[in-house]
Design goal:
The chain has nine helices and seven strands, in the order βαβαβαβαβααβαααβ. With about 250 residues, the chain is an alpha/beta fold. It has a seven-stranded parallel sheet with strand order 3-2-1-4-5-6-7, sandwiched between helices. The protein is globular.
């Protein structure tokens, strides 16, 4: 990044969000490390950013809460003047077969993954429209493209993120704001480490490149979308999945 930008990364305390925060900071951005319940891990991310010569700040917010997002993002602009990059990464899973899935488990996943993304775009776009510039990057999933047994709620939420991305891109493009999505495949994180070896082996067979991805693979893609080099790219879904969605 040619100049220091203010970048907000939701769900940045671990996994893919952590890698994105570190990568954007390494590229010169001042990173707002958002977390919900993992304050200690978020503090570790900020400490690592500063150890590496970068800087940022911590902000707690449950992105599923509309008013809380308005306050959170308003405070960022009040304290730092602008938001140049918004990465909607916060997400949860509550897997289970559709016929046994509770209404609560469906609603919670949609509230965080889809509504949370809407909340943050809704409240950030007003500032980016004023600036006539901005980069919005939403975390989708290969599951949102292909579907997946046992993840109807997660797949629905991520497919919704893709539709939201394309709609927002059309609305905001004329003001110099790009909106894109990244759809990770099987990435080694805390969320996937809990899967059984049998599930991992079956998944590996679906990946043409024959290997799982890393959080850093996703982070570098996000950093590109946040860069000046991606200024003419909007409304796209980049599948970083070793070929799973082909």
């Amino acid at each position: 990044m040619a100049e220091k930008k203010i970048a907000v990364v939701t769900g940045a305390s671990r996994g893919i969000g952590r890698a994105i925060a570190l990568e954007l900071a390494a590229e010169g951005a001042f990173v707002i490390v958002n977390y919900n319940g993992s304050k200690e891990k978020a503090e570790e991310v900020l400490a690592r950013i500063r150890e590496n010569g970068g800087d940022g700040a911590l902000y707690q917010c449950n992105v599923a809460e509309f008013d809380a997002c308005e306050q959170f993002l308003g405070e960022v602009v009040k304290n730092y003047g602008r938001i140049d990059v918004l990465v909607n990464n916060a997400g949860i899973t509550k897997d289970g077969l559709l016929m046994r899935m509770s209404e609560e488990d469906f609603a919670k996943v949609v509230d965080v993954n889809l509504k949370g993304t809407f909340n943050c775009i809704r409240h950030t776009s007003r500032y980016m429209l004023r600036q006539r510039s901005g980069r919005i990057i939403n975390m989708a999933s290969v599951v949102g493209v292909n579907g997946n047994a046992g993840q109807a709620n997660y797949a629905a939420s991520k497919a919704g993120v893709i539709g939201l991305t394309k709609s927002a891109a059309k609305e905001l493009a004329s003001r110099g704001i790009t909106v894109n999505a990244v759809a990770p495949g099987f990435i080694r994180t805390d969320m996937t480490d809990v899967l059984s070896d049998k599930v991992k082996e079956a998944t590996m067979k679906l990946i043409p490149m024959g290997t799982f991805g890393t959080p850093e693979d996703i982070a570098k893609t996000v950093a590109f979308l946040a860069s000046d080099g991606a200024g003419y790219l909007t409304g796209q879904v980049l599948c970083v999945d070793g070929g799973m969605a082909m």
